[in-house]
Amino acid sequence: MERYIFAFPSVTIAIKAQAVLRRKGISADVIRTPKSLAVGCGYSVSSAADPGVISELLEAEGITPRAIGKPR
Question: Which of 4, 18, 39, 70 lies 20 to 30 Å from 49 when distance is taken between CA atoms?
Fold first, then answer.
């Protein structure tokens, strides 16, 4: 299963994003941002769910990822 990484400007926002996704029934983990996607504080959320769905859910909560990518 392919995973996507959503990078955020702070660890606090990454944790908030994880909580939003889990409340919606989406499995998500806070991870260190891979160097290939390095932006912000160095923390991201990783999930195998559809990136478009995740983006919509987060945007509805006022959370905007700085970058979205796939781990290498």
Answer: 39
Residue 11: other Cβ atoms inside 10 A: 15
**How is 10-70 classified by DSSP, letter by letter?**
SHHHHHHHHHHHHHTT---EEEEPPGGG--TTSEEEEESS-HHHHHHHHHHTT---SEEE-
Burial 15-43 (b: 16+ CB within 10 A, else e): ebbbebbeeeebebeebebbeebeebbbb
Residue 64 has pLDDT above 60, yes or no: yes
Over 90: is that where the pLDDT of 41 sits? no
> Is a pLDDT exceeding 60 seen at residue 40?
no
